[in-house]
Protein 1
Amino acid sequence: MSRIGRMPVKIPAGVNVTLEGTHIRVKGPKGELERDLHPQVTVSIVDGQILVERPTDDNFHRALHGMTRALIQNMVTGVSTGFEKVLEVNGVGYRAEVEKNNLVLYVGYSHPVVIQPPAGISFETDARTRQIKVMGYDKELVGQVAANIRQVRPPEPYKGKGIKYLDEKIRRKAGKAGKV
């Protein structure tokens, strides 16, 4: 049996979960998420826990079992505590700031790049450490917005300038052969 799929998802206090067939809705203090689940996976609520079961031990059902449980866990965690991704801005003169909930990036272009947050996403910047925090209750959306910010100026391998994730390691290349 799937090690991830067989673990029950605990429903914390203040979180309300409703199941309507294959549609799940999770509501908590941070927000509300809903998702349509695959019809071949059985989801039930028992004693304040969400249980996910699969019909057979087929490879497809085994993969679906663990993925469905992980999606539900991310929904419950998101509406109760939320998620955040931290990006770092590296480069001389590169900086990021928040103006009226919008993220404004100065990363070497002739114009500032303005990124408007989608619903449920907020930005926070620290000028001293040159970090950008992307916060929200939907894990997929937080990851996608962080990837879009990184894509504005990806880190380059020679000097390491650009926007990168905080825990990302940039593989550096040597410059010209004659340069020391």
Protein 2
Amino acid sequence: MNAVDTNVLLYARDPRDPVKQATAEALIQSLTDGVLLWQVACEYLAASRKLAPLGYSRAQAWQDIRDFQEAWATLLPSWNILDRAEQLLSGYSLSFWDAMILAACLEGNVTRLYSEDLDAYAQINGLEMVNPFKDSLLT
């Protein structure tokens, strides 16, 4: 299974970088086995407000989340994710929120996470990290 970080979802709606937008849109469309992480959904709804000056509305953000819920499995948080995040924080140089996303992926048996933010690591505990804007491999 594949998960997508918030930054990738945001680029799909941000017309300021047409290359990243096209890459993000193509990736999202190609993922038939996608997983929507709870944290990513929340971050997306909060961060998408920055796209308002570009004509992107709060209603569009909520609709995007509903569309992702229909297309992908949703992974809800559990207490085990906090425990895994704590372990990741002590073993790797990660922000708290990145550790939470990685922990959620590991908890949900996600095998690949597409993110622009985790270039320092190619893999953690069997979870592959791919920067879709840097790497040509999308799936």
Protein 3
Amino acid sequence: MPAYVIVQVDVHDAKTYERYKDLAPSSIAAHGGRYLVRGSPVETLEGTWHPSRFVVLEFPDAGSARAWWNCDEYAPAKKLRQATAHTEMILVTGVERQP
């Protein structure tokens, strides 16, 4: 079943963070992942949640998402993101696709 990495990002060094957007995509694709949502603006329809930047990644399965998260290729991008932004990130398994 597909798995999704859902990320709320609050960037505090936008200039340096721009490099992350160049580094991360190749490691995501190498693990079968792709961006479904990447960026802002975000519109709150209900509640008090107001993320400034929101990302949803889709992977073939949770194992592929974990492999991406832990791979050597992603490590430099992860380090850069962690230095330039506060991130909340979760991994969830999707539902089986209907024919």
